[in-house]
Amino acid sequence: MKIELWVIGKTKDNYLKDGETEYIKRIKRYMAVEVSTIDIPAWPASMSAAEIKGKESQLVLAKLKADDYLIALDEKGGQVASEELALQMQSWMNAGYKRLIFLVGGAWGIDDSLKQRSNWQLSLSKLTFTHQMVRLIFLEQIYRAFTILNNEPYHNS
């Protein structure tokens, strides 16, 4: 299995890029992981948020394969504790998926068409984070899940 984190648009702040790089390096000790940026054009200012999400959705759907397991990170998704995410990761690994894809939407979130295609929707918190911060926070949670599964001292419970 390979974990892929798909993100819409580039991470702009260096401190976030550095954090992403660090957690990708840590995760690779356990499993293949890749962050894929879905480049978006400069949308016209006249486009509504719904239109932008629809266009971004088309870009994502064009990259998906039928057997991809897609988890959409969405504010209205289900919330789990870190230990529960670790157990869910183990379940996905046991299921033998080729690609486990976590999707972080753009600034306006994720279109309903992607939510419908997703196999699961996950919310990191009731708090609101920028879509760029979510990338780093979620990579840390993936790393934490692997340390929990391997009984390593990173996670204090």
Which fold does the CATH topology refer to?
Answer: Alpha/beta knot
> Helix count, per DSSP?
5
Reading off the top of the CATH hierarchy, the class is best stated as: Alpha Beta
Number of distinct beta strands: 5
Specify the helix fraction band: 40-55%
CA radius of gyration is: 15 Å
- In terms of structural class, how would the helical and strand content be classed? alpha/beta
- Encode the helix/strand succession as letters: EHEHEHEHEH
Average pLDDT rating: 94
Supply the number of structural domains. 1
Poorly predicted tracts of residues = none
The amount of beta strand, in percent, is 15-25%
State the oligomer: single chain
Output the strand order for the largest sheet.
2-1-4-3-5
Q: Descriptors for this entry?
A:
157 residues; globular; 5-stranded parallel β-sheet; single chain
Give a written overview of the molecule.
The chain is an alpha/beta fold and 157 residues long. The chain is built from five helices and five strands; from the N terminus they run E-H-E-H-E-H-E-H-E-H. Helix 1 links the parallel strand 1 and strand 2. Helix 1 (14-27) packs parallel to helix 5 and helix 3 (82-95) crosses helix 5. The two termini are 28 Å apart.
